[in-house]
Amino acid sequence: MASCKGMPAIAFIEFADMQGEIDLRTLPMGTLIITIGPTDTVSYEDRQYMKCQHTWVSPDGGQWDDRSLAEDIDGQTRAGRRAIVHYAPIC
Questions:
Q1: Does 2 map to a domain?
Q2: Stretch 58-69: mean pLDDT
Q3: How far is residue 75's CA from residue 54's CA, in Å, rounded to a whole number?
Q4: 3-state SS of the chain: helix, strand, coil percent to 5?
Q5: pLDDT of residue 5
Q6: How much is the pTM?
């Protein structure tokens, strides 16, 4: 996916009751995305991303905008990993 300003930030995501493409810009603050499955270097790994006000952050300190995270998650799901979304309201 090209990183153009007008392009949507779409990734393939699984929900508890459905799956499909979703524009990450439409998800509210507090959304947690977890990707699970094998990587190039290990047989199993989970990665976590939490949507904050302007960026997505991970426990290791990584930060992404909607578009770059969509590209990253899209690559992970195309490689056979699963992406699951959960909403954790931020008070």
A1: no
A2: 94
A3: 22
A4: 20, 35, 45
A5: 53
A6: 0.73
